[in-house]
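Q: How would the structure tokens look for this protein?
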Amino acid sequence: MAKAIIFDMDGVLVDSEPLHFASQKHVLSYKGITFTREIHREFIGFSNERAFWQALNKRYNVSLNIDVLMAERDDYFYSHLHQIKVIRPAFDLLQFCLLREVPCGLATSSSRKLINAMMHQFGIDHFFKVKKSGDEVVNGKPAPDIYLEAAADMGFEPADCVVIEDSSAGVAAGKAAGMQVVAVPNEYTRELDFSQADFVLESLTKFPALGLLEALK
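A: Here is the predicted structure in token form.
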């Protein structure tokens, strides 16, 4: 039985994927590049943002300045941060875990800056024993590093942890770390391959019924 939960953030705790997509599309439109949801979907869950822009340069056979792209993308993203909403079933699950003393961690491909912004915007910092960002690990998702480090920092073995993810890269990372993984696809990720996940749920409202946590026995 698992003793702890490690949450992904974007698309699991907060509905940020629409803004991630809009900010990338906005920046690229000014460069004469059409950026689609299908292309965006290919990169959901991957940690290295610089690698994302490098891949786009290669895809479109251009040589755009990546530092400029990242700065312009951040300007747009953070100026529209108010558009992001918390995902209610995830918030309810955090409260459920707090009441039952189930330790929770956060392991996201996003930056420490965005983690801090989301913790402040939604007042959810107190739910998490550990918070790990994609810019703090050598190898991002789908490598297992971020989940292994989160578990170690929480004081648990990988087998003691359940991961909640919304992307195939995140699922692969959790499984490579030796953890059980619950996938909760959303509008932006439901067409991805979740065959590696132990469970696939439409909503986290159904998570407690899985009976994965030692605290619920």
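The beta strands are 4-7, 104-108, 130-133, 161-165, 180-183, 199-200.

The helical segments are 17-29, 37-42, 49-60, 66-79, 88-99, 112-122, 145-154, 168-176.

Upvote if useful.
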